[in-house]
Amino acid sequence: MIFKAVGDGRPYPDHGLVTPKQWAEVPPRQVRLDELVTTKKMLSLDNLLSDDSTFFGDLFAHVVQYQGVMYLEDGLHRAVRAALHQRPILHARVLVLA
């Protein structure tokens, strides 16, 4: 299995980070794919195959750690791409919520 679990929605409270500039204040780090719970069940194939999918966005995936669980909020296509290349690690900005 690639991920710890596949979820549907965000089970954590709203954190208020919306723009790439706000997320840029969260430092990136490495996370293991098998520790992530997705917040989306569906992945658009055109996002996965796009060469410029991060052109207008953040280079790093966005992860929210809440109650000890790491939720992949944004960057599912990056995570799946990493898995397809047999890389168990993803670089992500991890926001820790109490």
Question: What does this protein look like?
Answer:
This is Type II toxin-antitoxin system VapB family antitoxin. This protein has 98 residues and is an alpha/beta fold. It has three helices and six strands; from the N terminus they run βαββαββαβ. It has one domain (5-11, 19-97): Conserved hypothetical protein from pyrococcus furiosus pfu- 392566-001, ParB domain (Alpha-Beta Complex). It has helices at 20-23, 45-49, 76-84; strands at residues 5-6, 28-32, 36-38, 61-66, 69-74, 89-97. A six-stranded mixed β-sheet has the order 1-3-5-4-6-2. A hairpin with a 2-residue loop joins β4 and β5 (69-74). The mean pLDDT is 89.
Give me the secondary-structure topology.
Layout: E1 5-6, H1 20-23, E2 28-32, E3 36-38, H2 45-49, E4 61-66, E5 69-74, H3 76-84, E6 89-97
Parallel strand pairs: 1-3, 3-5, 4-6
Antiparallel strand pairs: 2-6, 4-5
Pfam family, one: VapB
Protein name: Type II toxin-antitoxin system VapB family antitoxin
Organism: Pengzhenrongella frigida
CATH superfamily: Conserved hypothetical protein from pyrococcus furiosus pfu- 392566-001, ParB domain
> What is the CATH C-level name?
Alpha Beta
**Helix amount, in percent?**
10-25%
The residue-averaged pLDDT reads: 89
The CA-CA distance between the termini, in Å, is 28 Å
Instruction: Please indicate the count of domains.
Output: 1
Structural class: alpha/beta
Please provide the ordered H/E string of secondary-structure elements: EHEEHEEHE
Q: Enumerate the spans where pLDDT stays under 50 for 5 or more consecutive residues.
A: none
The tally of beta strands, per DSSP, is 6
The number of distinct helices, counting runs of at least 4 residues, comes to 3
Name the beta content range: 25-35%
The rough form would be described as: globular
Quaternary class = single chain
Under the CATH scheme, which architecture would be assigned?
Answer: Alpha-Beta Complex
Strand line-up across the major sheet: 1-3-5-4-6-2
